[in-house]
Amino acid sequence: ACERHHVHVLPRDDPDYPSPLRNIPAQPGLIYVKGALEPVDQLGIAIVGARRCTPYGARAAERLAASLARVGFTIISGLARGIDAAAHRGALKVGGRTIAVLANGLASVYPPEHQELAEEVAQAGALVSELPMGQKPLAMLFPQRNRIITGLSLGVIVVEATPRSGTLATVQHALEQNREV
């Protein structure tokens, strides 16, 4: 399945395994990668937020991502609807690098309407998951995925979040990992 989907597997002891992930609690034993992780990705900034965001929030996320990508930061998010997608698009619009961490296996894209966006992200950075190729998205996998988003990042920018949201779980991961929020 990895070969068919152009995915490679990086175990924790592989020299190409992202060094920031080696220093987080509950680090993934291996990650699946479609695209390429590069040393420059150590200058990663996560941009996360509400799936049901306001138009203003989407514009703000896209502009922040574009500005940061323009000066050499890799934009990291979760490919979700709303803020995540806007952040990936902002980086892509300026020719920047972006990484999407998925809460499912890389044999499919969730949400399905982001298939084209996922392909663009893989060309300009990488799709990453710790889950087996055929794993379908489950609610409990999203908070688990968020620790990888923060683990790959120097810091996290939150654009719109409700009081009970996965975004706040992401903030908690960031704080536990000594990342800036």
| End-to-end C-alpha gap | 37 Å
Subunit arrangement of the protein: single chain
Structural class, by secondary structure, is alpha/beta
Largest sheet report:
7 strands, mixed
Please trace the helix and strand order, writing H or E for each element.
EEEHEHEHEHEH
As residue ranges, the low-confidence spans are none
* Beta-strand percent range: 15-25%
Helix content: 25-40%
The overall pLDDT, averaged over residues, is 95
How many helices? The count is 5
User: What's the arrangement of strands in the largest beta sheet?
Assistant: 1-2-6-5-4-3-7
Measured on Cα atoms, how large is the radius of gyration? Answer: 14 Å
Q: Which term fits the overall shape?
A: globular
Number of strands: 7
Q: How would you portray this structure in words?
A:
With 181 residues, the protein is α/β, with parallel strands linked by helices. 33% of the residues lie in helices and 19% in strands. The protein is built from five helices and seven strands. A seven-stranded mixed sheet has the order 1-2-6-5-4-3-7, with helices on both faces. Strand 4 (74-77), helix 2 and strand 5 (98-101) form a beta-alpha-beta unit. It is globular. The termini are far apart. The mean pLDDT is 95.
